[in-house]
Please model this.
Amino acid sequence: MKVLAIDTSNFTLGVALVDGSQVIGEYTTNLKKNHSVRVMPAIETLLKDCDTVPKELTKIVVARGPGSYTGVRIGVTIAKTLAWTLQIPLSGVSSLEALAANGRHFNGLISPLFDARRGQIYTGLYEMNNNLLKPVIEDCNILSSEWAKQLKELNRPILFVGQDTDIHRDAIMEVLGEAAVFAPVQSYNSRPSELAFLGLNKPEEDIHQFVPNYIRMAEAEAKWLEQQGK
Model:
């Protein structure tokens, strides 16, 4: 079963090809460049290097958000197009869940996070149990200081992972102290191969109904709705 995974939900652009329990190929960059013009060439290069043609793919897995609004839309649109064209299943995985998988060897709870500006973060809480990643608290959009207070009540060590952790480190440490553990820089970026394996067990999506999970509205959309209500 050859699965193609696509993640353009943040600065990290990642594509991976897995076959059964084997990672055949993986491509990742962390650059402030336009994913819309880079993701298809990345997919084409990956498949070519792995001696795989599109018709051999049996499933598409995509990071469905949260993250960059534009980035999430790009990945979901391409994934839906490929799945529809090839007539194969499509599954979506939380971008935060994929990032949390980087903490699989941590003996405690895992809080992946992306910066959401103005002191806020996109985050959730996960735990690895028998090599399976389980959600403990659903993905949300919250002030990092409030999130730290919520986690303090659990009285357990928490691993924070993500390239935006340094932005919120002080607010988290002020509340959690030594209970807060920060992942090394090598674990900051999501791995598309982890995304692929997570997606193997996810249900198939209705391609026409499948949409990104932004968790909150884009600022422009929120302002427009606010204006309509006046």
Notes: Strands lie at 2-7, 12-19, 22-30, 57-63, 90-93, 109-117, 120-129, 132-143, 158-161, 180-182. The first strand starts at residue 2 and ends at 7. The two ends are 53 Å apart (CA to CA).
